[in-house]
């Protein structure tokens, strides 16, 4: 270290020299040596750069280098990201993943092997031919299953998710769309006509019953009351002639 130590330093340095840069840092900053050609310069940073990990001591906070195969690390023995060509597993950088694991080239990690998972078969579909369920005798019916879990690179692949088989149905003519619509319209009109006819008949019946009832009431009002017949026993009673 150059003996000329300056106190008026910049860039977070507590003490520095013109030749070696920072010699110590202000509180909470990390001291790290950066190589420039054959020369090393001390700098003070708020966090350690890539390839270094920080260690705090009572007198100074330092950045130390990770292992050669490690890009970023938490400590020297625990890597968090590996350099190209290595795969991360349990804090270590490996060229080949252990048995039972596979290399994930996207995350550059060793991950568990995932096998394909599918649902159960669906029920067989209706017997069809060219998208229709009529106008044929022999057709096909299908059933399918859904993929629940896609496999990883070394996982068991998914089986076929669709099956088809021949089927036979009783041949029937396909009803034309226009004719079917016309028949439905005619049925609807006939139904409405029948309902209207029944309604008219019920109305006529109620009117006739009401008219008969009113006629009877009028006849009762206009017919004279019958005189009460005299009691024959009273007419034949003996007359008192004593007087």
From TrEMBL:
Keywords: Disulfide bond, Glycoprotein, Heparin-binding, Repeat, Secreted, Sensory transduction, Signal, Wnt signaling pathway
GO biological process: positive regulation of non-canonical Wnt signaling pathway; Wnt signaling pathway
Compositionally biased region (Basic and acidic residues): 175-219
A GO term from the CC aspect: extracellular region
Location of this chain's protein in the cell: Secreted
Annotated region described as Disordered, given as residue ranges: 174-243
Limits of the Spondin-like TSP1 domain: 116-170
Residue ranges constituting the R-spondin Fu-CRD domain according to the UniProt record: 11-110
One example GO MF annotation: signaling receptor binding
InterPro entries membership: Furin_repeat, Growth_fac_rcpt_cys_sf, R-spondin, Rspo_Fu-CRD_dom, TSP1_rpt, TSP1_rpt_sf, TSP1_spondin_dom
Function field: Activator of the canonical Wnt signaling pathway by acting as a ligand for LGR4-6 receptors, which acts as a key regulator of angiogenesis. Upon binding to LGR4-6 (LGR4, LGR5 or LGR6), LGR4-6 associate with phosphorylated LRP6 and frizzled receptors that are activated by extracellular Wnt receptors, triggering the canonical Wnt signaling pathway to increase expression of target genes. Also regulates the canonical Wnt/beta-catenin-dependent pathway and non-canonical Wnt signaling by acting as an inhibitor of ZNRF3, an important regulator of the Wnt signaling pathway.
Family per record: Belongs to the R-spondin family.
Subunit architecture: Interacts with the extracellular domain of FZD8 and LRP6. It however does not form a ternary complex with FZD8 and LRP6. Interacts with WNT1. Binds heparin. Interacts with LGR4, LGR5 and LGR6.
Protein name: R-spondin-3
Organism for this UniProt entry: Vidua chalybeata
Gene designation per UniProt: Rspo3
């Amino acid at each position: 270290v150059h003996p000329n130590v300056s106190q008026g330093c910049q860039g977070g340095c507590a003490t520095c020299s013109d030749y070696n840069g920072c010699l110590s840092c202000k509180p909470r900053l990390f001291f790290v040596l950066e190589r420039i050609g054959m020369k090393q310069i001390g700098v003070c940073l708020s966090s350690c750069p890539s390839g270094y990990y920080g260690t705090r001591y009572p007198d100074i906070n330092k950045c130390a280098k990770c292992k050669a195969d490690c890009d970023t690390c938490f400590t020297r023995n625990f890597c968090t990201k590996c350099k190209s060509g290595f795969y991360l597993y349990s804090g270590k950088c490996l060229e080949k993943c252990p048995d039972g694991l596979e290399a994930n080239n996207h995350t550059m990690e060793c991950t568990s092997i995932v096998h394909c998972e599918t649902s159960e078969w669906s029920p067989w579909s209706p017997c069809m031919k060219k998208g229709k369920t009529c106008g044929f005798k022999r057709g096909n019916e299908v059933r399918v299953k859904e993929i629940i879990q896609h496999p990883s690179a070394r996982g068991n692949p998914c089986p076929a998710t669709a099956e088809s088989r021949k089927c036979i149905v009783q041949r029937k003519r396909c009803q034309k769309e226009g004719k079917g619509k016309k028949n439905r319209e005619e049925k609807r009109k006939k139904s409405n006509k029948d309902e209207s006819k029944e309604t008219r008949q019920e109305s006529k019946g109620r009117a006739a019953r009401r008219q008969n009832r009113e006629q009877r009431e009028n006849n009762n009002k206009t017919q004279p009351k019958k005189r009460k017949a005299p009691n024959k026993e009273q007419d034949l009673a003996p007359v008192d002639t004593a007087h």
